[in-house]
Design brief:
The protein is an alpha+beta fold. Helix content is about 40%, strand content about 20%. The chain is elongated.
């Protein structure tokens, strides 16, 4: 009997990979959405066989065991799932060998999500239970705790008989499901759980065989062989778990009950390094950390009892903290980490150690700080822009009022008109600078390139800034290389670059100062240096001198007007020409040197 073509095929793979009859799976599919559910309704023998295999492991209704609890807790932490469990599908019930976040050891089979996983080959992932018809009336989905996400890895015997799953659940849907790495984590941990189940069974069988040693020596030897094989499997699983810890992108530390570190993975070693003298680094050892959570204690050092390791060893289940740590290597900068921990308990609940996980969030914190700084600079720039655009309006409005309310001779009208023209020109210059910056940052500048003599470009730039130099009574020295130096570029834009740099030097140099322009030619490049003996720059300002909205001491500059975006614009235009621009200064009050390097074209020829 073949099912209709339109029927869902979510158990086809089961019949292809197992010895269970096709009729059993088909009848199962006919009943799979019914309220009452069993693994195999159609063939009681097969379900009876599966239950008998499960009973043979003698694991149902046994006390909690540390080996299982540790794996479940690790699955919950590594997969960031509030609920995780080792569940076994028994007759009319689902029983949990170990669980985190459920608070119960069993539930009716009718409420089970995991039972559907037994129809899969290995892994079942349900990104959103609300979008899966199988769980439309499941009380755990429609009611509390309103489960939304499920992922379950089968626990199968060597013969392929499914006993249950290692599953993780969340009350929030996960449209992306699990990554490949997360699937590998879940599969690896499920293998370890099954190895523990097999090991329990082997230990039980071995006890029986030892009791019958005198009569059945052959059975004893087989039991020993099986025990050795399981031991090898357990060792292999341990190695896989070690590899998993080393590959994890979060730092993981495992400590004993005294707080001594017994294991530290690669990511944690990258963040902290290794102390040159100590191998057991407990709470009393030279850990250095500071609160970085933005609270009133931000920046204060952590006391020994405040570390998540110390708190976990005192029984606090999930201490979380944002701290700044200092690696043992003094040359390594501090790192900001999100730190959490959990105590490890034995079968009677006594704390026998702790597991600490910490994620390096330094880059994220730095990025957020940079965004806040950029936003602050933007606000400062907008305030200064409003001030600069308002300044020319006062003389323009006064001049307009004079012209409209009084009759003057031609000389008064001409002088008043000159004021209006000069201030309007100043506003036009400000707006043109803003438009230039906007075009450059949006990549809208089109260069009109040609081969140019850099001497002519420098001469035009000096001509533009000469009124400013003269007004401040600066002494300008121009030293040009004794060769013809050609560049390929946009004449107007290159003149704008050097005029901005010369204007910057003039604005930030007190009256009567000295400015020097030096042109040097190399084989493939040319360098134009502009030096002054003005106010100079601090090391902090040099690092951001060419950033948009970045400004230094504004006393001299504000007296001359301007938006303080000249250096940012100059750098962008130089980069469009394939060059670089840099700033140097010995400190505040020690003058400044701006240097532009551009590609050179043509051969050098002696002048004169």
């Amino acid at each position: 009997m073949m099912p209709p073509p339109s029927f869902p095929s979510w158990c086809d793979g089961w019949t292809a990979r197992s010895r269970w009859p096709m009729t059993a799976c088909w009848r199962l599919r006919e009943r799979s959405f019914a309220r009452h559910w069993s693994i195999v309704d159609a063939d009681q023998y097969d379900e009876t066989e599966r239950l008998a295999v499960l009973d043979s492991y003698d694991i149902l209704d046994t006390p909690a065991e540390q080996a299982f609890d540790d794996v479940v807790k690790l699955a919950s932490q590594l997969l960031d799932a509030p609920i995780a469990a080792v569940n076994l599908i028994a007759k009319n019930r689902q029983w949990f060998k170990s669980e985190v976040g459920l608070g119960t050891r069993e539930m009716p089979l009718d409420d089970s999500i995991c039972k559907f996983a037994l129809l899969e080959d290995q892994l079942m992932i349900v990104p959103d239970t609300r979008e899966d018809a199988r769980f439309a009336r499941n009380p755990l989905v429609t009611g509390e705790p309103r489960l939304r996400f499920y992922a379950g890895q089968l626990l199968k015997t060597k013969a392929g008989i499914p006993l249950g799953t290692l599953c993780v659940l969340d009350v929030e849907p996960r449209p992306e499901g699990l990554t490949q790495q997360q699937q590998f984590v879940l599969a690896t941990l499920a293998q370890q759980i099954m190895s523990q189940i097999e090991l329990r069974k082997v230990v039980k069988d071995q006890a029986v065989l030892i009791a019958r040693q005198a009569q059945v020596q052959g059975e004893l030897r087989e039991s020993q062989r099986r025990a050795l094989e399981v031991s090898r499997q357990a060792e292999a699983e341990r190695r896989r778990t070690d590899a998993l810890l080393e590959a994890a992108p979060v730092g993981i530390v495992i400590a004993d009950a005294n707080g001594a570190i017994v294991k530290m993975n690669a990511e944690n070693r990258r963040m902290l390094g290794l102390h040159p003298e100590a191998t057991d680094l407990g709470p009393g050892q030279p850990w250095r950390g500071w609160w970085a959570d933005g609270s009133v204690r931000h920046g204060q050092p952590l006391a020994p009892h405040e570390w998540s390791l110390a708190r976990a060893l005192l029984g606090e289940e999930s201490p979380r903290q944002v701290i700044e740590i200092a690696p043992f290597d003094a040359a390594t900068p501090r790192r900001t980490v999100l730190n959490s921990g959990r105590p490890v308990r034995d079968e009677i609940g006594a704390i026998i150690g702790a597991v600490i996980a910490q994620m390096d969030i330094t880059d994220r914190i730095d990025a957020e700080s940079a965004l806040r700084m950029a936003d602050q600079k933007k606000d400062e720039f907008l305030a200064m822009l409003a001030h600069e655009l308002r300044n020319p309006l006062a003389p323009i409005m006064s001049a307009a009022a004079i012209l409209s309310n009084f009759h003057f001779d031609e000389g008064v009208v001409r002088r008043t008109g000159a004021i209006i023209a000069r201030q309007a020109g100043h506003m036009t210059s400000l707006i043109n600078d803003l438009l230039d910056v906007s075009r450059v940052t949006r990549g809208k500048v089109q260069l009109d390139t040609a081969e140019l003599n850099i001497r002519d470009v420098i001469a035009d730039a000096i001509e533009q800034v000469r009124p400013l130099v003269t007004r401040h009574q600066h002494h300008l020295d121009v030293l040009l290389a004794p060769v013809q130096v050609m560049v390929r570029g946009d004449r107007k834009r290159l003149v704008q670059v050097f005029a901005n740099l010369l204007g910057n030097a003039a604005k930030y140099t007190p009256d009567g100062g000295r400015i020097e322009l030096l042109l040097e030619a190399q084989a493939r490049t040319l360098t134009v240096s502009i030096r002054d003996n003005g106010v100079g720059m601090s090391s902090e300002l040099i690092d951001s001198a060419f950033d948009l909205f970045s400004q230094g001491v504004q006393g001299l500059d504000r007296s001359q007007g301007g938006l303080g975006i000249g250096l940012a614009l100059a750098r962008s235009l130089v980069q469009l020409h394939g060059g670089v621009v840099s700033a140097k200064s010995d400190g505040v009050g020690m003058g400044c040197q701006l240097e532009v390097t551009l590609p050179r074209v043509g051969a050098a020829m002696c002048v004169g």
